[in-house]
C-alpha cells in the first residue's frame, strides 16, 4: 500500500520565543533569566530576538526544542534525516516489528508512468512475499529485513532545537534536496512558524545568497 507522510509537532518548549528572548537579555543584565522571563513584553521579545539573531548570536535559540512524530516516510528519507547529528531520534525497528502488509513510498516519477508503476508494484509484492516466506520458515525479523527496499515506510520521532532546525531547513528546503525530505522540511517549517514565527520567519533555503549559483533553480530570482 502506498503511504502518505504524516507530520505532527507533539511537544515543544512552552512559549519558546519568550524563553529565548529572556535568555538573550540575561546576558547583559544583572537579573537572571528566571527574573526577566515574565517582565518582557511581546514587543520586547520580538525586538530582542531580531537584534540577537541578526548579529549571528544563535546560541540563545538552542533553548527551544521541538519534538515531531513523523509517520509513513521511506527508509531512504530517514537515512538522510539522521545525518543531522545535533538531534535526537527514535525510529521504528525492523528488527522487532514484523511488517505484515506491503507499505511503501512511491516516487511521483514512477507513479506517473504506468509501465514503471506496474513494475514497481510487482517488485514490491514479490519482495514482501519472500519476506513473509522467510518469517514463516523461522528466519528472524532482523535477518528477513535485509531484502526490504528503501521504499519501505518507517515511523520516526525527531527532536531538534531551534538552531538545528534552522540549519535543517537551510539545507533540506532547498530545491537541490531530495524531493521527499524536502517535502518533510517544508511541512515542518510551516508547523514551527505557527509556534515561533519570529525565530523561523526567515528560515528556509538561502536563495538570496545561494551557495550553488551554477545549479539551475526555479526559485532563484523570486
Describe it for me?
The chain has 222 residues and is an alpha+beta fold. The protein has 2 domains: 141 residues, 2-Layer Sandwich (Gyrase A, domain 2); 42 residues. The protein has a 4-stranded antiparallel beta sheet. It is elongated and about 70 Å long. It starts with 5 loop residues before the first strand and ends in a 27-residue tail after the last helix.
Please tag this protein with its features:
single chain; 222 residues; 2 domains; 4-stranded antiparallel sheet; 14% strand; elongated
CATH level-two architecture of the largest domain:
2-Layer Sandwich
Number of strands: 4
Mean pLDDT: 94
Q: How much of the polypeptide forms β-strand, as a percent range?
A: 5-15%
Shape: elongated
Which stretches are poorly predicted, pLDDT < 50 over at least 5 residues?
A: none
Indicate the structural class: alpha+beta
Distance between the termini: 38 Å
Amino acid at each position: 500500500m502506498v503511504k502518505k507522510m504524516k507530520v505532527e509537532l507533539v511537544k515543544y518548549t512552552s512559549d519558546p520565543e519568550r524563553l529565548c528572548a529572556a535568555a538573550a537579555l540575561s546576558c547583559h543584565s544583572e537579573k537572571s533569566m528566571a527574573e526577566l522571563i515574565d517582565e518582557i513584553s511581546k514587543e520586547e521579545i520580538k525586538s530582542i530576538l531580531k537584534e540577537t539573531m541578526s548579529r549571528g548570536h544563535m546560541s540563545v535559540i538552542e533553548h527551544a526544542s521541538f519534538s515531531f512524530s513523523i509517520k509513513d516516510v521511506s527508509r531512504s528519507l530517514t537515512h538522510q534525516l539522521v545525518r543531522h547529528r545535533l538531534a535526537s531520534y527514535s525510529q521504528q525497528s525492523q528488527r522487532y516489528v514484523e511488517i505484515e502488509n506491503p507499505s511503501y513510498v512511491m516516487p511521483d516519477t514512477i507513479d506517473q508512468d504506468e509501465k514503471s508503476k506496474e513494475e514497481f508494484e510487482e517488485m514490491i509484492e514479490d519482495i514482501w512475499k519472500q519476506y513473509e516466506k522467510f518469517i514463516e520458515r523461522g528466519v528472524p525479523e532482523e535477518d528477513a529485513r535485509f531484502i526490504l527496499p528503501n521504499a519501505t515506510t518507517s515511523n520516526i520521532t525527531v527532536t531538534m532545537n531551534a538552531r538545528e532546525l534552522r540549519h535543517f531547513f537551510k539545507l533540506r528546503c532547498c530545491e537541490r534536496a531530495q524531493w521527499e525530505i524536502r517535502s518533510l522540511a517544508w511541512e515542518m517549517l510551516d508547523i514551527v512558524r505557527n509556534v515561533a514565527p519570529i525565530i523561523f520567519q526567515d528560515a528556509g533555503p538561502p536563495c538570496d545568497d545561494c551557495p550553488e549559483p551554477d545549479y539551475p533553480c526555479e526559485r532563484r530570482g523570486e
